[in-house]
């Protein structure tokens, strides 16, 4: 089962609000760990029902409200009308903002997506999770697989490569050099070596 974990927030202005569609081509890099902002935050979010968070691209702060609360300082309550099992993350123009589970969609997550139950759906292996793709995107495969740790591939059928080295102590000299080259079809080769001091460096 997939779970949602907060990492970071960005804020981007809509420059031409009079246009029916405003395209925003931006590449976002999600950090591995949540960005801490409680120490330097000038806002008093804790007086309400929320916590202070940082817009990573602007350096400004905002109050990230708990479910059921909204407003600049999370002091206003609201009744969420998302479907059971979905995540209610706020409100906009008196409507709940809902994050749907994998098999649901729609503004309030009441519509069911059965693509993963069809015969041509991905057969995700090794406890992988089938995820339906957005039907608005023209692709051949209507489903994809989210793989657990140590597995990858279109259907999570491939294991992570593991190399076990056994070196007898009498054969070791003053230093030991182990050289690896990792090759990815979409990236240039990455060469790594591990010296006898245990350090890992790029070369």
UniProtKB/TrEMBL annotation:
<dbReference type="InterPro" id="IPR000742">
    <property type="entry name" value="EGF"/>
</dbReference>
<feature type="disulfide bond">
    <location>
        <begin position="65"/>
        <end position="74"/>
    </location>
</feature>
<feature type="domain" description="EGF-like">
    <location>
        <begin position="37"/>
        <end position="75"/>
    </location>
</feature>
<feature type="disulfide bond">
    <location>
        <begin position="147"/>
        <end position="156"/>
    </location>
</feature>
<protein>
    <recommendedName>
        <fullName>EGF-like domain-containing protein</fullName>
    </recommendedName>
</protein>
<keyword id="KW-1015">Disulfide bond</keyword>
<keyword id="KW-0245">EGF-like domain</keyword>
<feature type="domain" description="EGF-like">
    <location>
        <begin position="112"/>
        <end position="157"/>
    </location>
</feature>
<dbReference type="GO" id="GO:0005112">
    <property type="term" value="F:Notch binding"/>
</dbReference>
<dbReference type="Pfam" id="PF23106">
    <property type="entry name" value="EGF_Teneurin"/>
</dbReference>
<dbReference type="InterPro" id="IPR050906">
    <property type="entry name" value="Notch_signaling"/>
</dbReference>
């Amino acid at each position: 089962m997939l779970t949602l974990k907060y990492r970071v927030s960005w804020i981007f202005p809509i420059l031409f609000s009079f246009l029916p569609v405003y395209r925003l081509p931006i590449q976002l890099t999600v950090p591995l760990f949540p960005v801490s902002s409680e120490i330097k935050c000038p806002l008093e979010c804790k007086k309400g029902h929320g916590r202070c968070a940082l817009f990573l691209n602007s350096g400004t702060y905002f109050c990230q409200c708990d479910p059921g609360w909204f407003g600049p300082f999370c002091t206003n309550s609201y009744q969420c009308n998302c479907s059971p099992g979905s995540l209610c993350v706020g409100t906009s123009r008196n409507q709940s903002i809902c994050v749907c589970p994998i098999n649901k969609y729609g503004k309030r997550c009441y519509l069911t997506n059965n693509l993963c139950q069809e015969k041509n759906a991905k057969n995700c292996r090794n406890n992988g999770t089938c995820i339906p793709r957005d039907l608005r995107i023209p692709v051949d495969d209507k489903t994809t697989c989210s793989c657990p740790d140590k597995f990858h591939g279109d259907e999570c059928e491939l294991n992570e490569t593991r190399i076990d080295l056994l070196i007898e102590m009498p054969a070791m000299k003053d230093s030991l050099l182990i050289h690896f080259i990792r090759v990815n079809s979409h990236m240039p080769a990455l060469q790594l070596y591990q010296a006898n001091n245990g350090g890992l460096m790029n070369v």
